[in-house]
């Protein structure tokens, strides 16, 4: 038991490997409009299993025994990038999920104490409710993109601005392009091959293949893959999460030919239709760096950016620096882009585990 600030609440640590405790936590996440896939115990377990970072689920419990708030965390350990408590690791969202201010304060206080007990670690909250106190608020670094899924394919096409719609029509008219969805080992292999090359071209170390397998395994039918092929050759692919009526393409990419083929445009358009068929109502295009080319591309697809707010706390007020836009990483990024793909795929998983 971890003491909280609110006399009516007790903060405790749930065991995400225990089916009953995990079910209680997930029921709370699924019942609230602000819950995300990154609050779910499936995400905590997948990251712990594939990346080795210990999952921690703090729960603010009411006198009745009901959960009144959650804070999912990973204890990220890295020699290269430093150690931290992160909510949640390798995610674009997370943070405190609570019903009332007392639960927010109790969970924030518990995280601070846990960080101190573990050697003065910084704490990073990638979304969620503002913890207040002496937590630092970071706004303007990233933007998110969400809009409703249209009623049918034709309406979806018309929701795309005219210039980008013309590019999408070229892909739709290409008889060589076809789309496959599912969760098979073959699709997972094709997705990883494309994703690894895509992130190498951006100068980013690829995650281990086991991460994608773990996410598919833990989320079950709430995660799948979509691959675009030119004939038999896979050219674009994405791993998608489904949560609370939202389609959330999360890890996606394309080969160098994707731009010529407009296969990425086709991929996301077909994913919107796939989500509609699953009963989803919103398309969450994820986050991008403010002012980036990726952000501009999503806006040209008919999505308006909205600022994302993150929070961090540390004893000395100094947060980890793991941003790829940081000046100290630019030379390394430029060098990474030049690595042969087999070398990048061998070294990448060892480095990326520490990014969290």
UniProtKB/TrEMBL annotation:
Residues 162-299 form the BioF2-like acetyltransferase domain. SUPFAM superfamilies: Acyl-CoA N-acyltransferases (Nat). InterPro entries: Acyl_CoA_acyltransferase, BioF2-like_GNAT_dom, PEP-CTERM_FemAB-rel. This is FemAB family XrtA/PEP-CTERM system-associated protein. It comes from Sphingobium rhizovicinum. The lineage of its organism: Bacteria, Pseudomonadati, Pseudomonadota, Alphaproteobacteria, Sphingomonadales.
